[in-house]
Amino acid sequence: PDKKRNTAIFVFFLQQTLNFAWSFLFFYFNMIGLALIEIILLWICILIMIVLFYRIKPLAAYINIPYLLWVTFASVLNASYYFLN
Predict the structure, then answer these.
(1) Does residue 36 contact residue 22 with C-beta atoms inside 8 Å?
(2) What is the dihedral of CA 33, 51, 61, 57, to 10 degrees?
(3) CA–CA separation, 32 vs 23, rounded Å?
(4) How many structural domains is the chain composed of?
(5) Can you give the residue range of the structural domain that contains 65?
(6) Are 5 and 56 a contacting pair, CB within 8 Å?
(7) What is the b/e burial string over 25-56, where b = at least 16 CB atoms within 10 angstroms of the residue's CB?
(8) Pick from 21, 73, 18, 13: which is nearest to 49 by CA?
(9) How far is CA 5 from CA 49, 61, 79, in A?
(10) Are 50 and 64 in contact (CB under 8 A)?
(11) What is the pLDDT of residues 21-62, one digit of tens each?
């Protein structure tokens, strides 16, 4: 159980770091292409986090689904901005 928990916590902090970094890449540094790659990695990380959370406590996974949907929307916006500019 501790290994599952520690892995879930690690992935949680990884996605938080990726989320934080995306704002700087996109808004401050205006590196739209790199931000797009980064947000795709963030989306994958969130999905992995949800799966790991589900194995420990399903409710923890369910409450992160809106977050995944929001990042999906932000990814589409990021991709649109990249490909249209």
Answers:
(1) no
(2) -150
(3) 10
(4) 1
(5) 2-84
(6) yes
(7) bbeeeeeeeebbebbeebbebbbebbebbeee
(8) 13
(9) 11, 13, 33
(10) yes
(11) 999 999 999 999 999 999 999 999 999 999 999 999 999 999
Going by pLDDT thresholds of 50, 70 and 90, the confidence category of residue 1 is: low
Question: What does the alpha-carbon distance between residue 19 and residue 38 come to, in Å, rounded to a whole number?
Answer: 9
The three-class DSSP label of residue 63 is coil
Q: How far apart are CA 29 and CA 23, in angstroms?
A: 9
CA distance 18 to 71: 12
Structure tokens belonging to residue 58: 């399903």
